[in-house]
Design brief:
single chain, about 190 residues, alpha+beta, Pnp Oxidase, Chain A, about 30% strand
Length: about 190
């Protein structure tokens, strides 16, 4: 039976801390755009308060969540228990994107273990917290974090990451504007 919570209490915070992966879903306005759902890991989510979370967003092949956040802010973060008792937890809310040149980015980044390839922080004001049974979620064992993304970012270095983002992260699949900061920096 699903339950709605007024805030992230200690039990929900503990559940979130135990999860090795979470999923972020967003969509543009209107009926025709592409809905996006992305898996996230690498210990990148932090609880900021009873109804506020943030996660690190890394350079990737697209920037859908950022584009959708800029257009309408709607987002849902979902956690699934793949080990232990079954449970699904969803955090619905409004997202805000903080890029490296934005006020508040550096201060919020202090709450994380910084890694190469961070392009933004996604901060979410959570308006609905709910859980459900998770009986259909399979049991799986965590073997470890993948290292390829961080290694790729280290090889690219700063100039290479900026060039990659200019080419691949300036707009969403639907042509919505996404990242701003690579355009405000000197070209390598």
């Amino acid at each position: 039976m699903a339950k709605v919570y007024p805030e992230l209490d200690e039990r929900l915070r503990a559940f979130i801390a135990e999860q090795h992966i979470f999923f972020v879903a967003s969509a543009p306005n209107g009926p025709d755009g592409h809905v996006n759902c992305s898996p996230k890991g690498l210990d990148t989510l932090r609880i900021l308060g009873p109804t506020s979370v943030a996660y690190l967003d890394f350079v990737g092949s697209g920037a859908e969540t950022i584009a959708h956040a800029r257009q309408n802010g709607r987002v849902v973060i979902m956690f699934c228990a793949f080990e232990g008792p079954p449970k699904i937890l969803r955090l619905h809310g409004r997202s805000e994107i903080l890029e490296p040149n934005d006020a508040g980015f550096a201060k919020l980044l202090e709450r994380f273990d910084a890694k190469p390839g961070i392009r933004a922080i996604v901060r979410v004001d959570v308006s609905r917290i709910s859980d459900s049974c998770g009986y259909g979620v399979p049991l799986m064992r965590f073997e470890g974090e993948r290292t390829q993304m961080i290694e790729w970012a280290e090889r690219k270095q700063e100039a290479g990451l900026v060039a990659y983002q200019r080419e691949h992260n300036a707009a969403s699949l639907d042509g919505l504007p996404s990242l701003r900061w690579p355009e405000t920096r000197e070209k390598p």
